Task: structure prediction
Amino acid sequence: MAIGSDLKQGLRLVAVPEWNRGGARSRAERRRVRRGRFMAANAEPVAVFLIGARVNRWRSVRGWLPVMLAMPGMIKELGADPESGFLGYRMLLGPAFGEITIVQYWRRAGDIRAYATDSARRHRPAQSAFWRRYFTSNGAVGIWHEMYSVRPGAYSALYGDMPPTGIGALFGLVPAVPGAKGGYEPSTDPIFAAQVTEDRPPSGE
Result:
């Protein structure tokens, strides 16, 4: 029963490979292109967690399938818990066949560590099961992860003619123009301001 549920959730992740807690609810709104150049607000800290897997031995299904089925269940668990610190993710396939990377955004690095070490959550049992299979699976699947903890104001994210994406979908977008000393800065240009305003409901509604 659990395997069927995880498989269903995994197929859902492949079909709709991005999610964020603070973004637009409808898929059409998430995919609507914002004309113009925007930058993400960066007043909040953020932790970026990259986690990936690579199938090395396709015939060793028992070695790699449990790993692939574990992640969808974790994403579902985290998405249902607003207090977890998990803000959103994007799933990337490739670059080689059999490789997958999930880019996760978290409130802070401590939230990632707390989830990873909580025996009542799905990650710790899945990790223990992986290491039990490690030597018998003969390298059937490879896994990796990287974590970056970034303080407020120490990151930048720029978008041109894009739907809300990544950190911009989480923390909001503001019009952007090239800065006098390089990089980009918020704009007061009325053309860009109008593009931001059109996404808001008319006053009085």
In short: The beta strands are 18-20, 34-40, 46-55, 86-93, 99-106, 141-150, 158-162, 173-178, 184-186. Residues 90 and 180 are 33 Å apart (CA to CA).
